[in-house]
Amino acid sequence: MPKPKSRTPMIDFHLQIPTKIMDWVDEQINSGFYRSRTEVIMDTLRKEAKKKEEN
């Protein structure tokens, strides 16, 4: 991959995010919030699949 000549706007944007927000995001990830959301979505999809099989 060729090296970008300049940083992307996205990276500049991330550099401007206050550390308080980054700490909060880390807390959410570490508390399992994102994992549990994924599990809820997967459970919903499984229930939908079961309904389709029964019909």
Automatic annotation (TrEMBL):
GO terms for biological process: regulation of DNA-templated transcription. This is Ribbon-helix-helix protein CopG domain-containing protein.
